[in-house]
Amino acid sequence: MKSLKTIVLLILIPFAIGILFSFRPPSYKLAKLKYNGGGDWYANRTALSNLINFCNKNLGTNFDPEEAIVEAGSSNLYNYPFVYLTGHGNIVFSDQEALNIRKYLMAGGFLHIDDNYGLDQFIRRQMKKVFPELDFVELPVNHVLYNQKFKFPGGLPKIHEHDGKRPLGLALIYKGRMVCYYTYECDLGNGWEDAGTYADDSDETRQKALKMGSNLIQYALTR
C-alpha cells in the first residue's frame, strides 16, 4: 500500500512532466466516505464526479471520472489523498474508525466535510473522537484556500439557503497543517450536482460552487 505522500507525488510529478512533454498523467480516484449511524452518506450523488470533471478541465488534473466509495474504518482510506463526507443525519464513528481517520489525516490525507443540512450536531461530536485536542476554527477570508486559481475575496460562498445564516469555512489544524475543512451553512456539494437537480440553482451558482471546490482540491494536493 502506497503512502499518501507517495500518492500525492505520483499525481503531481507526472502532471508536471506531462506539461513539458505532452504526456497525460496517471489517473487516481477521489473518494466519498461511507459511515455508520443511519445518515445518508450517499447524498449529493453526482457532486463529486462533476467536481472531478471540472478539475480535470480547469486544473489539468487527470482524476478518474468515477468517485470511489471508502468505509471509515477501511485501510483503503490511505489510497485517496482527498476524501469527501456529506449527509443530512446521524453519523457514528467507532473507536477503530476514529483512530483510522486520525492516522489517515496525520499521514497527509485530507477530509472535506460538507454539511448537507442536519449533519452539524452529529459530525462535531464524531470529529472530537478523531481529534479530541482540536477545535474547528473559522478560516479568515484572506486564507490561501480562497486565493488559489479562483479568487473568493469574501471567503466561502453561500450556495443554498436554509436558516438565513452566513456560510462558515471551518478547519481542523494539526501541527500547522489543515487536515479537515468543514463547510457549514453553505451546501457546497449541492452546487456541484447535475444542473436541474435543484430548481433554485442558477448556472452562476453552480460555477461558483465548482470553482470553490476546485480551489479546495488544488489546496489539498499542493499545500
What are its keywords?
223 residues, alpha/beta, Rossmann fold, seven-stranded mixed sheet, 17% strand
Q: How many separate structural domains?
A: 1
Distance between the termini: 23 Å
CATH superfamily: Domain of unknown function DUF4159
Named at the architecture level, the CATH assignment is 3-Layer(aba) Sandwich
Rg over CA atoms, rounded to whole Å, is 16 Å
Spans of at least 5 consecutive residues whose pLDDT stays below 50 are 17-22
Structural class comes to: alpha/beta
Mean pLDDT metric: 90
Q: What is the CATH topology assignment?
A: Rossmann fold
Describe the global form. globular
* Approximate helicity band: 25-40%
Give a description of the structure.
- This protein has one domain (29-222): Rossmann fold, CATH 3.40.50.
- The protein has five helices and seven strands, in the order αβαββαβαβββα.
- The chain has helices at 4-21, 47-58, 95-106, 120-130, 203-222, and strands spanning 31-34, 68-71, 82-87, 110-115, 137-138, 168-174, 177-184.
- Helix 2 links the parallel strand 1 and strand 2 (68-71).
- The longest helix has 20 residues, at 203-222.
- Mean pLDDT is 90; it is low at 17-22.
